[in-house]
Amino acid sequence: MKTYILSAILLISLSLENSFSQTLTFDLPAQKGKTLYLIACKGVNRDTIFFGQINEKGILTFTPSKDKPLFSGVVSLFIKPDINFDFIYSAKENPTLHSEGEYIHVQNTHFHNSRENDFMASKFSEQMERTNKIMFLNQGMQLYNSEEKLYSLFQEERGKLEQQQAAFETVLQQESKNLYSARLMMLQNLMNNHVSRLQATSDTVEYARIRERAMQELDTETLYHSGMWFHFINGLLELYYKESPYYGQFGKDIATLLQKTQSQEVFLALANDAATICNQYSWNIDEAALSKYLHQSGRVTNPRGKLLQMLILYKLQPGMLAPALAGASLNKKSNGTLLMFYETGCNNCDNEINQLIGNYPVFKEKGIKVISIAADNDKSIYENTARNFPWKDKLCDFKAFQGENFKNYGVMGTPTIYLIDKKGVIQGKYASLSEIPLK
What we know:
Layout: H1 2-19, E1 24-27, E2 35-42, E3 45-53, E4 59-62, E5 73-79, E6 83-89, E7 96-99, E8 109-112, H2 115-141, H3 149-175, H4 180-193, H5 204-217, H6 220-224, H7 229-236, H8 250-260, H9 264-280, H10 284-297, H11 305-314, E9 337-342, H12 347-365, E10 369-374, H13 379-386, E11 393-395, H14 404-408, E12 416-420, E13 426-430
Parallel strand pairs: 1-7, 9-10, 10-11
Antiparallel strand pairs: 1-4, 2-3, 2-5, 5-6, 7-8, 9-12, 12-13
Helix pairs in contact: 2-3, 2-4, 3-4, 8-9, 8-10, 9-10, 10-11
């Protein structure tokens, strides 16, 4: 009998689960007959996930399909020509967005059955009011000496507000387990109160504090669906420029964030963007660390584009055998080979090529064979430039970055320089001749 009852309960539960259909309803009487677009934030991209015509009663319903679920995050309601309204979509809610206005904005829009948007609206306003008061008190304190009474009063009031903010952030932490809006506000606070300050400071202690906080608190899944992806990551880059104490740590830090990222979509997006950044700034140390982690993680199962090149780069670390060259042979005598990957018209490439021409007698004297490999498409442009090179081996298959040598050596940007010893072992990868330690 007990078995029968338990089976019946299970069947009822499964039936209710299967009959549950998540919907997002728009109730917009002033917009009847117009086409509504729903756009989701995904990293640096904005993806149109739905569009439909609002009926004569001002109603339109969106139901995500099971094969293309919509994850919790910031979405935009867009109606041509100039209505663009952001709100939070939750995979756990069936809300109705209602607005009577000809223009849709925070003041004339209401949500039914959406704790996410109610929480965001109330708590965001509460925090903004408190933040503005703290800012006002800080400005007031600058007008008085620390011995004056008003200074003490301002300081005391600021202390109370800061305690309130600390308590508020504890609430956000607790609510973050269930609410995307709480996680989003935590992310906004991390950006506004910490990451954005990197541009205004050069203090190494402050750099260390912000870096530690970002590594501990950053939720990449929340960031991916927030619309803040570019600004947040771009802000963090201040930690890793050449003048920073953390120059050369970008690859390792990204690997740490990737390790904590559960979503495969977010994992691949972050890995791809990090690879782009390494290439853009010629951060070869970071590129090596990132490519090593991606290889060891086993999560890039169908690599394409930059991620394919990153996995190729794992096999091109110092100490590993260099791939064979198409069209020329590596120097197996004396002091090896210098490979210069370049593109005619690229300013940095032209500078490095000129440096190489000027220093070619030095490389020749040291027994280093120079081979240049161009990413040019135009034969006449290539030949007009290459004829001025004093070395013999000048390669170009006119396939640009899709050429065999560019692919085999994982070259994503130019200039890229490899130094290979006489045994065919890679000694290093560089973005500039000045980085090469010639003995």
